[in-house]
DNA sequence: ACTGTAATGTTATATTGTAACATAATGCAG
DNA sequence: CTGCATTATGTTACAATATAACATTACAGT
């Protein structure tokens, strides 16, 4: 049911389509859950997807303003709060930046590959990682509420690109 | 060789000893690596361990000032940079806070259990997690440079404490 | 239409982190 | 030991990120 974005989409992928797909997913999800995906929230979510890599809150604020909306920091942060609470957006805390979640409605976990070269982020959904984490934590009597895994490095494309030089 | 802090040390553990142990480790490590653990850096590291849970940079700044040192933000941040570069301290990015690293000199990876109730943090060193991550990333052609795993939840002690109420 | 709730607007400010340049301490070659 | 290069620290100013608090508007259900 969820859109399956390839990790690190190639430069020539159908970006417009991929954004609108994500939005349709979000709309459907909110509908189904009785969540109010207001115009503002929709707009912010669209901007996040359109950037297609982690965006800062103040960058979103600028973009909102350019789209003609009157906005201040709380405008953006409140929209982000809503989107995060409902699993439509993740925060990459090592970068103070936000990305669209490719499988809305999932648990509150996230795994990111962050390419230091091109800045793109791919979201993983590796069940094995999840289960190993759960196991490790439980052994210590720790009850897991949520977690984030942020992996920095170099993506395949950038590796090849640098070899070409 | 490294001090093996139990995850989530009990309230009655020998705190003073545990701090001085960590400092001795750090001193030895720096000696051996030819790193300059200056007075300032030593002082900051000591404060971090003394807090024994994630501390913010400005909190450290306050504490430094109370110890009579003239300090401004860069004072702290530079010490933190040094300590992090050399694996003596980790940054918990989901909290903008810093903790002592229980096994200095390790790779640039970190796994934290963060108790939402008592605020304490335990550092894991689960090799299985590391290898699953490496494997998952490599499958996508991604070269891992470093990673952080931040797990929020409730520690064993807090779980029992809340049952007693 | 009326009303309570949820969402947004607005202003001000808190918190976290850096840039840039000046001064002081340290290690080392001669 | 002296001067020199390097590294560390002091100092001032500011950038970037995030929230508090209160006013206003929109909305859903009656």
Could you characterize what this model shows?
Two copies of one chain form a homodimer. Chain A has 165 residues and is of the alpha+beta class. Chain A folds into two domains: 13-104, Winged helix-like DNA-binding domain superfamily/Winged helix DNA-binding domain (Arc Repressor Mutant, subunit A); 107-165, Ferric-uptake regulator, C-terminal dimerisarion domain (Dna Ligase, domain 1), CATH 3.30.1490. In chain A, 47% of the residues lie in helices and 19% in strands. Chain A contains six helices and five strands, in the order H-H-H-H-E-E-E-E-H-E-H. In chain A, the strands form two sheets. Chain A has a three-stranded mixed sheet. Chain A has a two-stranded antiparallel ribbon with strand order 1-2. In chain A, helix 1 (15-33) runs antiparallel to helix 2, helix 2 (39-51) packs across helix 4 and helix 3 crosses helix 4. The N and C termini of chain A lie far apart (41 Å). The model of chain A has no long low-confidence stretch (mean pLDDT 90). Strand 5 of chain A pairs antiparallel with strand 5 (143-154) of chain B, so a sheet runs across the interface. Chain A binds a DNA duplex (30 and 30 nucleotides) through residues 36, 38, 40-41, 56-58, 70-75, 77-78, 82, 96.
